[in-house]
Amino acid sequence: MDINKKYTPAQRAEKAFKIEIPDQAPTFELEFQLAPELFGRELICYKHNAEEFAKLSRKEQEAYIDEEADFTVKVYEALDYSIIPCYGGRWAFDSWEYKAFVKAIRQRIGNTRLLGNHGDGTFSIPDGNHMYEFAYRLYDDPEGMNRDAENMCRGAIENNKKLSEAGIDVVWLCSDYCYNSGPFMSPDMFSEYVTPYLARIISSAKAEGLWTIKHTDGDIMPILNQLVDTEPHALHSLDPMAGVDIAEIKRLYGDRIALCGNVNCALMQTGTDEEVRESALYALRHGMPGGGYFFCTSNVPFRGMPPERYTMILDIWREYRDYPPKL
Question: What angle do CA 7, 8, 13 make, to 5 degrees?
């Protein structure tokens, strides 16, 4: 580590992905839902109206995209994210609108920050209306389950190619696998219906030059070895509400995979300021040593969270983010 070198936010992220030590621990969030409270209005992904957009002339559409790119950059530069969530107006990844949105952001930031979007295509926890059907199929229709998993996998691989072509740098693999009590299917079933497909998605994304971050909430410990073996660059969110300890994950796998997290979102919603502060300090204390660490929450800064709680943990991060670690 060169303690005198100053990195850009993008370079800090790249060093973290490589399990190397930058000048500062980078930060990002999968989503940021507090823009109205902190910046006066919604980001495009929460307010875009496709029908109204379609009524605009092409020149008006281009002006709209430029305006939203301006605001997106304003928000994420103020937060100092190393990776900007680049969701746009829910346009198809190969549409001219999405490509124009990504290009407009890139023109404003150059290569100083990375751009990210969602890229998973594996089974996740079914909603309540489909849970029984899904459980029965695991036993009654294994061929159909694998066929569906294959189709989802191929779709994700194709979508991630489109994201790469549009100018995206990072894909977040955001299928949720776990409750607070453990995975939604047994580790053996997970190894059949999820792990090989997730590994292919990650391998293909890497071949496209994309960085990969695997996200899942809940108690990941029974399947942690499988997640690490699929070789994403980083793992998010190391959920403290499910008893996942970032210190233990760092001890077990910190030399193989970057860690993202894991300030307790439940405490940010209902805990005391001191509890939130201690959660942030714990994440920094155990995540930073040796590099390979991104500071972030254990989920996202969600709507309804007191915005001052989020600004508080960012202030703590700014105080302690420098390498070598102060904590």
Answer: 90
Per-residue pLDDT tens digits for 63-108: 999 999 999 999 999 999 999 999 998 899 999 999 999 999 999 9
Q: What are phi and psi of 312, to 5 degrees?
A: -65, -45
279 falls within a domain: no
Q: How far apart are CA 279 and CA 157, in angstroms?
A: 36
Query: 42 lies in a domain?
Result: yes
Q: What is residue 238's three-state secondary structure? A: coil
Strands (E), the chain: 83-85, 114-118, 170-173, 178-179, 182-183, 211-215, 234-236, 258-263, 293-297
What are the backbone dihedrals phi and psi of residue 258, each rounded to the nearest 5 degrees, phi first? -75, 150
Short-list 259, 262, 287, 276, CA closest to 311: 276
Predicted structure pTM score: 0.97
Cα gap 223→100, rounded to integer Å: 39
* Total count of domains within the chain: 1
Q: Provide the domain limits for residue 107.
A: 30-80+82-118
In a domain, 166, yes or no: no
CA neighbor of 297 nearest in space, from 325, 324, 260, 272: 260
Residue 88: left (phi > 0), alpha (psi -120 to 50), or beta? Answer: left
Residue 14 lies in a domain: no
Beta bridge partners of 133: none
